[in-house]
Amino acid sequence: MNAPLAVTLSPSPLAVEARAPSMRTTVLRRLVQRPSAAIGLVIIVLFVVAALLAPWLAPYDPIATSFSTVRKAPSAAHWFGTDDIGRDVLSRVIFGARASLLAGVVSVLISLSIGVPTGLLAGYAGGRTDMLISRITDALLACPFLILAIALAAFLGPSLTNAMIAIGISATPIFIRLTRGTTIAVKAEDFVLAARAIGNAPWRVALRHVLPNIVPPLLVQATLAIAAAVIAEASLSFLGLGQQPPQPSWGSMLNTAKNYIDNAPWMAIWPGVSIFLLVLSFNIVGDGLRDALDPRHA
C-alpha cells in the first residue's frame, strides 16, 4: 500500500500581499498607543500642514517690511510681534517651517541614497571592499557632524540647496555604518544562506533578501537624522550659510534676534520654540518607532 503523499500548500499571492498592510497597520497602532509618540506625531503633522499651507495660513507677507511697526510686542494685529524691520514674526515662523522641514527631509534622502547602497556593498561583499569603505567611513566619522557640515557648506557657498547637500553628505557615514552592520548580521541568517545555496546571484540576494530586512533600523535612524538635520540647517542659517535673507528661516531669525534679546525677546522665543518642538517631536517619534518595530516591545 502506497504511503499517503504530503501536500504542502503555498500561500497565495493575495495572502502574501495582504500581510504587508497588516504589518504597517500593526506598527502604526503600536506607535500611536504610546502617548508621547502620538503627541510628537501630531506636532510633526501640524508643522507639515503649516508649511504646505503657509501662503493661506500666514496673516502677512513674510518679507514685507513696515517701519511703522518695528519691534512691536505681540498683539491682536501681530500675534507673535514684529521684528527689527516690521516684518510679522508669525508669518516668518510659518514660512520658516518650509526651510527646516525641506532641509531635514531632503538631506536625509541624500544620506540614504548614498549611505544605504554603499553600506550594503561593504557588508555583503566583505574583504577589501569592506575594508576600504569602512576606513573611509571611520575617517569621516572622526570629524564632528556639524563641523563637517559647516565646512562643506562654506565650500559650496551659502544657499539652502547647498546647505541640504552639505548636511546630507555629513550624515552619510552614519547610514553607511548602520547599513553595513545590519547587512553583516542578516546575511548570516538561514534564509539568506538558502537563497545563495540555490544559485541566486549575489546582487539578487542582497536586494531581494537582505535589503528588505534591514529597513526597520534604517527608518528609525532616518527619523532621528531628520531632527539632527533641522538643527544643522538652523545652525547654518544662523551663520549665514543656509537660507539667505530676506527669505525666512528659523536660524536666520535667531541670528537677527540676538541683537534685540533684551528689548524684543519675542523675536527669539518663537523661532527657538519652533526648533525645540520640531526636533523634540522627531526624536520622540523615532524612539517610539524603534519600539513599535521591535516585536519584543509589542
Topology summary:
Layout: H1 13-32, H2 35-52, H3 54-57, H4 89-125, H5 127-141, H6 145-156, H7 160-186, H8 190-197, H9 202-210, H10 215-238, H11 250-257, H12 266-293
Task: Kindly describe this structure.
The relative contact order is 0.15. The chain has 298 residues and is mainly α. Helix 4 (89-125) runs parallel beside helix 7 (160-186) and helix 5 crosses helix 7 (160-186). It has a single domain (46-57, 80-297), classed as Orthogonal Bundle (MetI-like fold), CATH 1.10.3720.10. It has helices at residues 13-32, 35-52, 54-57, 89-125, 127-141, 145-156, 160-186, 190-197, 202-210, 215-238, 250-257, 266-293.
What is the average of the pLDDT values?
Answer: 88
Biggest sheet architecture: none
Shape: elongated
Strand content: under 5%
User: Helical region count?
Assistant: 12
Helix percentage:
over 70%
Q: Could you list the spans in which at least 5 consecutive residues all have pLDDT below 50?
A: 1-20
Elements, N to C (H/E): HHHHHHHHHHHH
| Count of distinct structural domains | 1
Q: At CATH's second level, what is the architecture?
A: Orthogonal Bundle
End-to-end distance: 50 Å
Count of DSSP strands: 0
Q: Please give the CATH class.
A: Mainly Alpha
**Gyration radius, in Å:** 24 Å
Structural class: mainly alpha
What is the fold-level CATH name, i.e. the topology?
MetI-like fold
CATH superfamily: MetI-like
